[in-house]
Design a protein that fits this description.
Blueprint: E1 11-17, E2 27-30, E3 46-52, E4 64-72, E5 81-82, H1 120-131
Parallel strand pairs: 1-4
Antiparallel strand pairs: 1-2, 3-4, 4-5
């Protein structure tokens, strides 16, 4: 009886993060096969400056994401200013509590606290302690 092992080549995916540019479909193919680079993405107001990391010539033995780098088309005397841009997630801003809310007519006032209110002599003493390297305790 003869037993033969059968092997299949693993497939991996190359993902293109265009960093706000035109969409490029991911490439999924067998490990070690030649990769044909896609056409450069476009982005209004920017010139494409390459991929980071560079697109490999053959499919690596892992999934890989490459990120587009852009040059801004405005600014300096050469006509180009070099910036790497990345879209950041939008964060929710918590609302201020009623005691901290502000309006155009009423300035924000700190809450009265004996730990914050220091007389002139106390402030001067604290500055001297700080200059001498002593720990400030409020």
């Amino acid at each position: 009886m003869t037993i033969k092992a059968k092997w299949t080549v693993n497939q991996y995916t190359l993902i293109f993060d265009t960093n706000g540019g035109s969409t490029i479909a991911p490439i999924t193919q067998d490990y070690g096969t030649a990769i044909t680079a896609p056409a450069d993405p476009t982005k209004t107001g920017y010139t494409f400056a390459g991929w980071t990391p560079a697109i490999p010539t053959t499919m690596p033995a892992e999934n890989l994401t490459v990120t587009a780098q852009w040059r801004y088309n405005g600014g300096g005397s050469s006509g180009y200013s070099y910036y790497t841009t990345k879209q950041l997630p939008v964060l929710a801003v918590p609302s201020l509590p009623p005691a901290m809310s502000a309006s155009a007519r009423e300035p924000i006032r700190p809450s009265p606290s004996p730990r914050i209110r220091l007389c002139c002599r106390q402030r001067q003493d604290r500055r001297q302690e700080h200059r001498r390297g002593e720990v400030l305790h409020l």
